[in-house]
Amino acid sequence: MTQHDPRRSHPLARDAMAYVLAGGRGSRLAELTDTRAKPAVYFGGKSRIIDFALSNAINSGIRRIGVATQYKAHSLIRHLQRGWNFLRPERNESFDILPASQRVSEFQWYEGTADAVYQNIDIIESYAPEFMVILAGDHIYKMDYEVMLQQHCNSGADVTVACMEVPRMEAVGFGVMHVDADDRIVDFVEKPADPPAIPGQPDVALASLGIYVFSTRLLIDELRRDADTPGSSRDFGKDLIPYLVKHGHAQAHRFGDSCVRTAEEPAAYWRDVGTVDAYWEANIDLTDVVPQLDLYDRSWPLWTYSEITPPAKFVHDHDGRRGSAVSSLIAGDCIVSGSTIHRSLLSTGVRAHSYSCLDEAVVLPYTHIGRGARLSRVVIDRGVHIPDGLVVGEDPVADAHRFRRTDKGICLITQPMIDRLG
């Protein structure tokens, strides 16, 4: 167990490596992940989902980062190469992209989240970090990992697990931490029908966020032990964490203690945008006058690959043909040409042509909206060409026949769906 040395003159993040697990299929996002991994899905007009975990690491002071990729990784790897290549080895910094490359066995891809770290132990050991911060690459949040590292050292824990307080019966879809009065984890239950409550808070449970801190030496020992355990699924949440809860010291870290937020952000913000409905809602929420997530916080910037683009442009000023946007986010290189945009998010390079109307639309890069089209409550994939006069969001039966329509009435539109219209 590692105790914090009060004589240490620099942040613990300097001695840590962030390891981002970015290989998930993201199948609940349906066609949005047909050609890209979930962490590579666009978010907020300019960024990708993975940029949040990576930005948190950089802003926390971590300068050694590894990203494990697996499924449909090309666009993710390209984004990482273009936007995250500024770390310099001569400054004792590193950024490694770690695809599943059968390094342990020529027949073995990453079998689980723990295996995605185990197969790269030699790379981790070559950097010799004192701590490992294990992160999921597919959530939206702002967090200072230094605070969690400090707690990990001060508690002497074998593993520290970031958790979020949620209404108890909403925790049925999470891994739930059962803790004692000192937040030591005494049991871990995966997606329980009757989640255990926090001591003294009978209506609240602690849900795991898939963020873990280990001392590197202990983690490597545990990964090797798990790899030698018959029947293990090689997963942190299913195998390693429950084992350490039972046989070691597992400590809960409350997300509210390290969540980064401005005075305008009313509560700790964490979102899993793993469904089309959740993805649409999180993007549309950004259009609020005071959104729950502040992307304009310059003290905790969201790093990403930023294309060099001209400013957004609004043209035509005639009745019925006025380029305008209200309560909307419009990225660079967009041209709103005689189109009306309301409570929508337009990513880079969108063209909205005359007499069209977008209402509560999330539009991914380089999409063209045809003349006279009316679209409401939609997610439009990258590069789609919406035909002139197309109407979506007014006839649920027709929408469900032509596009993917969710139970909450959100339509996902991709180019193959448009092509099938004939």
Automatic annotation (TrEMBL):
The keyword Transferase applies. Its EC number is 2.7.7.27. Alpha-D-glucose 1-phosphate binds at residues 110, 175, 190-191, 208. It catalyses: alpha-D-glucose 1-phosphate + ATP + H(+) = ADP-alpha-D-glucose + diphosphate. Residues 310-413 form the Glucose-1-phosphate adenylyltransferase/Bifunctional protein GlmU-like C-terminal hexapeptide domain. GO terms for molecular function: ATP binding; glucose-1-phosphate adenylyltransferase activity. InterPro entries: ADP-Glc_PPase, ADP_Glu_pyroP_CS, GlgC_bac, GlmU/GlgC-like_hexapep, NTP_transferase_dom, Nucleotide-diphossugar_trans, Trimer_LpxA-like_sf. It is an enzyme of class 2 (transferase). Keywords: ATP-binding, Carbohydrate metabolism, Glycogen biosynthesis, Glycogen metabolism, Nucleotide-binding, Nucleotidyltransferase, Transferase. Gene3D superfamilies: Hexapeptide repeat proteins (2.160.10.10), Spore Coat Polysaccharide Biosynthesis Protein SpsA, Chain A (3.90.550.10). Pfam families: Hexapep_GlmU (PF24894), NTP_transferase (PF00483). It comes from the Bacteria. Involved in the biosynthesis of ADP-glucose, a building block required for the elongation reactions to produce glycogen. Catalyzes the reaction between ATP and alpha-D-glucose 1-phosphate (G1P) to produce pyrophosphate and ADP-Glc. Belongs to the bacterial/plant glucose-1-phosphate adenylyltransferase family. This is Glucose-1-phosphate adenylyltransferase. It comes from Sphingomonas palmae. The gene is glgC.
